[in-house]
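Progress report, Aim 2. The chain analyzed during this reporting quarter is listed below.
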Amino acid sequence: MRRGELRERARAAAATGTGSAALPAGPVAEPASVVVERRVEWTDTDAAGHYHHSTVVRWVEAAEAVLLHRLGLSHLFGSTPRVHFEADYRARLWFGDAVRTELKVTKVGTASLHYAFTVRGAQGGEAATGRMIIAHSAAHATGSTPWPEDVRELLGAAGPQQPELLTTAQASGGTPCASQS
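Predicted structure tokens for the chain:
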């Protein structure tokens, strides 16, 4: 793949409405990032009635999927194993709550990629923060492999991507259960 082709793919996706907002014409200094909204589903909750800790992994990976799609990098699925995940849980979220996951690339290594994330509840307060590290492992490789240079460049400098937000009707639904105490 020629240098810069992925950046052009992201611009084309933005122009057709299938991807990110248009990238600036000049050099971009900010790493790739995205905001994704979801709702706490019934299956996301535990016996205490609030979200289960494992749900954060799913929200973060959903944000990662949106980010890679926006950048035209969906072909990376299957070649990016997770090598580290950590989270600090700060607040409860309940069934039906709107949740906003902010995911940002913090480092693009030779064969690794570091993300930082923040999960926020409807009022904007932090519910969870953390980081995830993935490795690049080309198909049929027995270990990690270097990122292609154009992929490294795009992940490190694409800037904020178009968010994936709940619609007004979805966002105003509120908690479908009685209020939690």
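Residues 5-13+31-170 form a domain with the Thiol Ester Dehydrase; Chain A fold (CATH 3.10.129.10). The first helix runs from residue 5 to 16. These observations will guide the mutagenesis work planned for the next reporting period.
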